[in-house]
Specification:
Blueprint (H helix, E strand, L loop, with lengths): L3 H15 L4 E6 L15 E7 L2 E6 L3 E6 L5 E5 L9 E7 L2 E6 L6 E6 L16 H8 L6 H6 L9 H10 L13 H20 L40 E5 L2 E5 L6
The structure holds a DNA duplex (16 and 16 nucleotides).
Length: 259
DNA sequence: CGAACGACCTGTTCGC
DNA sequence: TGCGAACAGGTCGTTC
């Protein structure tokens, strides 16, 4: 499930634990993943997030890049503990190790140069003003929900938070991006900031198996207003929340509140 | 070019 | 109870 708030949570926690530490080695467990080199003996000079990607910068101008996709998790183990089920790779330090756990094996791990992509991608926690959304969306006919989830435009919003944002902004998910007014984009921007910041403060949404770096559940699942509430009454108007497929993914919305 | 869909994987849930 | 089908949070490549 990792979307922006979950990856941001890991990013902050990783920074606390591994900044300045020396990597002993990176061990690949899942043969589907390519081995990475040039990490041994290097120390961590920074940890950052870009959309849903995690970057661990090393002192040799190399960068460990991870993407957790659907079911990936990272777990910090600071003393000898059993290898978890579905462990896919680990990054070992003197003080402990990061284990990547991923039942569906979609997560990725690569070693990149220091010059990571410079493409113009907007981070919803940074700069993502309504007028820019309106400008980009003006000639896009795809549904506004798909627009919000397009990582080439805004990086970090996935299915759960897209549903939540559009509900809070009172915009129907099927609306074409080009039909959304500036006024409505302003509501989308405000909802995005509020929801994602709160979700980060809650350390993410633990619907099924999401856990933070220390194995703790997040708390934002208690704040969800529409996601997972199909068939139940809308918290605003009490009419029934619908759940339908949009672009292949389950989409919960209130047909009365979201225009 | 944009949009829809299948593929990538495994575990869980649902219906018969 | 048992079994197969459907479905799950994300991205990418192909096709129409």
């Amino acid at each position: 499930m990792p979307e922006l708030p979950e990856v941001e949570t890991l990013c902050m926690q990783l920074g606390e634990v591994i900044f300045g530490r020396v990597i002993r080695n990176i061990e690949i467990i899942d043969p589907k993943l390519q081995p990475v080199s040039e990490a041994e003996g290097r120390y961590v000079s920074a940890v950052s997030r870009r959309g849903k990607f995690l970057h661990i910068f090393l002192d040799n101008d190399r960068t460990v890049v991870m993407h957790l996709r659907m079911t990936g998790r990272l777990l910090w183990q600071d003393r000898h503990q059993d290898m978890p089920r579905h462990a896919r790779f680990l990054i070992a330090f003197e003080e402990g190790r990061i284990v990547c756990i991923d039942p569906r094996r979609f997560a990725t791990l690569t070693m990149e140069g220091a010059e990571l992509g410079t493409a113009l991608i907007h981070d919803p926690l940074q700069e993502c003003p309504a007028h820019l959304l309106e400008e980009i969306g003006r000639n896009r006919k795809l549904p506004v929900k798909s627009f919000l989830m397009d990582q080439r435009i805004i990086a970090g919003i996935g299915n759960i938070y897209a549903c939540e944002i559009l509900y809070e902004a009172s915009v129907a998910p099927w609306r074409k991006a080009c039909s959304v007014s500036l006024r409505e984009w302003e509501r989308v921007e405000a909802a995005t900031k509020r929801i994602l910041e709160k979700a980060v403060a809650c350390r993410g949404t633990s619907i099924s198996d999401w856990r933070d770096l220390f194995g703790r559940k997040g708390e934002y699942q208690h704040e969800l207003k529409v996601y997972g509430r199909g068939g139940r009454p809308c918290l605003r108007c009490r009419r029934v929340i619908l759940r339908e497929r949009l672009g292949g993914r389950g989409t919960c919305y209130c047909p009365h509140c979201q225009k």
